[in-house]
Amino acid sequence: MLNAEGVADPENRKRKLNSEIANGRLAMIAIMGMMFQDGTFGTTGPEMWMAGSAFENELGAQAPLGYWDPLGLSKDGDAELFYRRRCTEIKHGRVCMIAAMGYITPEFSRFPGFCSPSAGVKFSDVPNGLAAISKVPATGWAQWFIFCGLLETYGAKQLADNPPGKLQGGELGFGPSQYGRLGIYKGDSISDPEAKKRGLNSEIANGRLAMMAIIGMFYQDGLTGSAWGDWALYTDSPLR
Predict the structure, then answer these.
(1) Are 126 and 115 in contact (CB under 8 A)?
(2) At 117, which CATH number?
(3) Residue 119 falls within a domain, yes or no?
(4) Whether residue 147 sits in one domain with residue 57
(5) Which of these ranges, 11-20, 73-82, 117-126, 192-201, has the smallest mean pLDDT?
(6) Are 223 and 229 contacting, i.e. CB atoms less than 8 angstroms apart?
(7) Four-residue CA torsion sign, 144, 145, 147, 151
(8) 146 and 219 share a domain?
(9) What pTM value is reported for the model?
């Protein structure tokens, strides 16, 4: 029945007319989305999200999404770019895992003594989270930047002929030294191929989770003043 005039029951007719209007609105949004997707990616199918790629069998392609590249950054098959992005992903994941632990640990334990004897700042005086930025002296932050720079340029380098995430550090006059399992200096690597693959996939997955976790902690800390969510302190919450 295409004509609502033929519906005798007033309530039934009202429901069908409302349904037509609602479905029409949904269809207008849907067709615009399809046109945008088709114009941007050349397809309106799910392959936009899980497109085949030269890298779909690489580490990090895990269930349920498999190789997930919604922006199509690796559709060109550029192995050099993929290598650089994978190295960057692993590095960021490792940093974020440390950062997440850095948010949690001071809630339970802190170093004794002074963070800066010259400025009279004790470790117990430094608050947890984003508030610490204003409390740590500038020379302390400078030391961190120098330390990270030394790791980047000398202590933990990613060489182009090594797999992503496998770092090397120079020993003065004695050539390169390897970091083994769990990043242990001169440690042994995992010999079992399946166990190694599982461990590397776990690192990537945990790093991705840590990146989301630390951003969530930053966001919550910025809104409430605490990474642990005392939302009573967020008086501007739209949920109030």
Answers:
(1) yes
(2) 1.10.3460
(3) yes
(4) yes
(5) 73-82
(6) no
(7) positive
(8) yes
(9) 0.67
Asked if residue 8 belongs to a domain, the reply is no
Name 211's Cβ contacts closer than 8 Å, sequence gap at least 6: 92, 93, 96
The pLDDT, as a whole number, for residue 2 is 47
Beta strand spans in 12-131 (E)? 114-116, 121-122
What's the mean per-residue pLDDT of the chain? 78
CA angle, 24 as apex, 21 and 28 as ends, to 5°?
140
Q: Indicate if 61 and 101 belong to the same structural domain.
A: yes
How far is residue 140's CA from residue 132's CA, in Å, rounded to a whole number? 11
What amino acid occupies position 226? Answer: S
Q: Which domain holds residue 114?
A: 49-233
Q: How many domains does the chain have?
A: 2
User: What is the three-state SS of 193-240?
Assistant: HHHHHHHHHHHHHHHHHHHHHHHHHHHHHHHHCCCCCCHHHCCCCCCC
Max mean pLDDT range (41-45, 131-135, 202-206):
202-206
